[in-house]
Amino acid sequence: MTVICETTIPLRWVAREAKPEGTVVRVREVNVGGPEIVVMAGPCAVEGEAQLLETARAVRAGGAKILRGGVFKPRTSPYSFQGLRGAGLELLARAREETGLPIVTEVMDARQLPIVSDYADLLQIGSRNMQNFTLLEEVGRSRLPVLFKRGMSATIDEYLHAAEYILSGGNDQVILCERGIRTFESSTRNTLDLNAVPMLKRRTHLPVLVDPSHGTGHAWMVPSLACAAIAAGADGLLVEVHCDPLQALSDGSQSLAPEEFDRMMIQLAAIAAAMGREVGKP
Ligand code: PEP
Ligand code: MN
């Protein structure tokens, strides 16, 4: 008797064969998946106007092309800072107006999609929601591009079948993002699975990003893993940067200070050049 496992059902939309030339996802004027390495950077959470604007100016000056900032935060404890929600979206819009950077922010639930879509240029689906199929079906109907993070305990097959929900719904503007998986290792927050980069590039036509911040949990490790990700063939990075990491309301220990971000961007330029690509100048 043959046991049919769901992940053996062929992928129709995300498979490389469906679009051998590869997909370039357009986020306003920024192309993700083209020759340029795209760095998306900003705070884990939007905390207030001064924090966001100072960080946004710093990441733009360092060469980031998209501003990240969470306003609906999926926190482990309900007593932790949950994000500024609607007020945070307004601040992101102000930061976009001032810096010209498009914004990426997380949508945690299908009910939040209308309001988040009014502000975001790129919808982030977080690790914890990788198999929130209702949300995936809703963003599949959206015309906005999606930054789709791998579940922390998901296999590559499960991840790709989940992405299939979005593409089969009609939205092919999907960027994949490896953000670390759970292993027995406890010296880092997660184990950044860089195997996923060449594997995803081979099996799908979608752009692949790496998040070395959640992948390690340690700011001091982020530049090394960022370089390794580009060397492994990633199309870009999602990096947490805070104007004052020690005061951050979430993920401060894995957030780069602006001067650390600048140093990392200089290193990345050399790795990108070795890979025949470039990191956009500010
Ligand atoms: C984040 O990007 O801040 C985040 C919550 O990431 P993840 O979903 O990968 O944990
Ligand atoms: Mn975070």
Overall description:
The protein has 282 residues and is an alpha/beta fold. It has one domain: Aldolase class I (TIM Barrel, Alpha-Beta Barrel), CATH 3.20.20.70. 34% of the residues lie in helices and 15% in strands. The protein contains 9 helices and 11 strands. An 8-stranded parallel barrel has the order 3-4-5-6-7-8-9-10, surrounded by 6 helices. β6, α4 (133-140) and β7 (146-149) form a beta-alpha-beta unit. α8 (222-231) packs parallel to α9. The longest helix is centred in the last third of the chain and has 17 residues, at 258-274. The chain is globular, with a radius of gyration of 17 Å. The relative contact order is 0.17. The mean pLDDT is 97. It binds phosphoenolpyruvate and manganese (II) ion. Phosphoenolpyruvate (PEP) binds at residues 44, 70, 74, 126-128, 149, 179, 214.
CATH uppermost class:
Alpha Beta
How much helix is in the residues?
25-40%
Count of structural domains: 1
Broad structural category: alpha/beta
Largest sheet entry: 8 strands, parallel, barrel
